[in-house]
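User: Predict the full complex structure for these chains.
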Amino acid sequence: MIAGHDSVIVQTVVRLLLPWIRIFALYVLLHGHDSPGGGFQGGVIMAASYILIGLALGRDELDRSFPEESALRWAVAGALVFLLAGMLGMAGGGGLLDYAAAPVPGITRIDLRYYGVLVIEIGVFMTVTAALTLIFARLAKTAEGEAA
Amino acid sequence: MMALAAGHGVYWAAIALALIGFYAMIAHGNLLKQLIGLNILQTAVILFFIAGSAKWGAVIPIASRAAGAEMAAERAMNPLPHALMLTAIVVMVATLGVALAVLVRLYRRYGSFEEDAILDRAE
Amino acid sequence: MSGLVLGILLVLAVGLAVAALRARDLLSAALILGGYGLVLSLVWAAMGAVDVAFTEAMVGAGAFTVFLLAALLRTSATRTQPRPRARRGALVVTLLLGAALLWGSRDLPAFGDPASPAARHVSPRYLERGLAETGASNIVTAVLGDYRSYDTLIETVVILTAALGCWLLMPRGRE
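Assistant: Here is the predicted structure of the three-chain assembly.
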């Protein structure tokens, strides 16, 4: 597996589909406040676009578009975004993850909470996308060098 | 009996799924089947939580932004289990990915997913 | 929420779970499990848990199946033998557990009861004040990202840990 599909139709259709999948993933992420969706769902859709690359275009293409090392960095960065957004509230004298206490002038408390949720959803999105892509890449890749 | 099934049938389904998964985990000789059993056991727990959030005649927990629109609590599903199970499902797939990685390592070492064959070759 | 639809879907889910475990061919088992995930996502949708249904449709029916297939195609194990050993002990333990769970389920509130303890505790406040307090009209997002964000923070770290574990467990394949 993971050598790419031989059919040019599959490869072309996948290349055409990829941008739409990613736009939908971002829509699901950013519209999570008002409709079903959010960081977890958007992240899985985004990871699906990379898994599709691995399945249809081959693992070399997957390595090019999302190398494992950068996937690991994105996963860590996502968790850090979440944690730092939560700690902003502590800087303003509130508790951890108390978005309304963040010391940002000129924004009402309710807007602070709105954007706080948005920022942590983006952090979740980054971690889920990178983690699922990494797990797939590792599961699909190892057998390549397998002797048995 | 029918009234009891309407009130508790969902719990029975959750118990049935949990037992199917549990039995597969302890009785099946194939490690991959045991993993599938674990997945079914996990979804049984999720079913139990989501069943606790449901209310007859209620709508999905999305409020209206229209001015003056009030959200009556007894007319919408309980959102708390939804949020908890949502994260649980994604964590489930990530941890099952780790379990699959362990299984693939085992396979590369012992050449089988069968518990008996692995135990034989490990000695 | 329709009781009849829910009942049919639940029977289908239990049947697919049994079929996935009884399949002799591991590839078939993986694909049946994908179908099981899809039926479950319909169950969540029928119970009004749209966010959970959305996630399950992608994770249970999609990502997990792909992971299983990737692992299976990597190894050449396709078939499984029925286990030769006696399994009476396992059956007895399972039936005892089932009896205990059934015994305990008698005390649970009836399914769909709007006055059940779980529905009266903190969730009415989330539902009634969620939009006004957090600005998110999807109350599940409000609970996930605001009211219960500690939980979500730790879950994110768990996912990160799982990715790290997979990365460490699987050595880089030969290029």
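Chain C touches chain B through 94 residues (CB under 8 Å).
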